[in-house]
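Much of what follows relies on a compact textual record of a protein's fold. A complete example follows; check for yourself that the lines match position by position.
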Amino acid sequence: MSTIRVDVLVLGLGPAGACAATQAARQGCSVIGVDRKQVAGQPVQCAEFVPAMIGMDVADLQLSVRQRIASMTTFVEQDDPDIKENFPGYMLDRAAFDAHLVGQALASGAQCSLGVSARRITAEGVVILSDGRSIMPRVIIGADGPRSLAGRAIGQVNTALVETRQITVPLYHAHEATDIFLSADIPGGYGWLFPKSDVANLGAGVDPAYKHQLKSIIQRLHQTLMARDLVGASILGMTGGLIPVGGLLQPWGRIADTLVLLAGDAAGLTNPVTGAGISAAAHSGRLAGLAAAATTSGDLSAPQDYAEGYADELNDIFGPALARARQRRLALAARRPSEEDLRQSWIAYPQYWAA
């Protein structure tokens, strides 16, 4: 089979990849996007909360919203909860959200293939796909998650990760807060309950060394919330996955004449404390698509200039917050945390934001 030449190849069609494909296609690039999932966004591997500001990057967001979030309630060990009143956001139907974004990419002219993954990237920058196609792109956008093939190809690998598990359970009462559970018995992470109308996502994340404890952590949390008559016993669904928590990687590199840009989890843009990454994925994907289009526009400037500009913009927007979160995470991991340590490690408390 002959090699297909294209301006931009997007690996992964989650929020980062779909937004990148949309932007590059809208700028006139020929774009191919692939994702290993057979159906966009399924299975869901996400707690599905996004801050309200994501509406700046995603049009028609309300099509995917299950409910609004007004506040955050944080439980530290057995203490009374602390309530942060002004914490606006949305709980998404993540599968519908991802499908909507892929639909936007298709409508913009990108060729999107689901159920297709990248098998390998050659030293010449040719990408071999699982369906047998060989693609020679001018730009590869790696939006293929925390263990990105594109990232490995340019030596940028997420090495610090968190393991997560989540169940979906019936929610008995209307709830407009995200509930956060901080405890020394959830090492390297936290527990959560995120409401979605008549159901809730109940989960936890831990350092990989404690992965074997995830099942019991979730069971204890589930039993506690059942005793409060907040949720039901039925488990309606289960998911899990990896979250990168090491902070921002160098988000570009080269393979021969092919430029590689990383976005979303592949670039390490997930917050090392909260695990939040959807908003950063969508925003970085949009920026990556614009940078990719600029490198293929025929401008006399070197493609490296656009890549470095992309990296600078990511660092300006996300760098300080990621650096602070990483610092807080490392401090928390240094010893078994006290209640004060846990508060200092969480965004709802002023201690977190102190110098």
Remarks:
- Residues 303-333 form the longest helix (31 residues).
- The longest strand covers residues 161-170.
- The two ends are 58 Å apart (CA to CA).
- The mean pLDDT is 94.
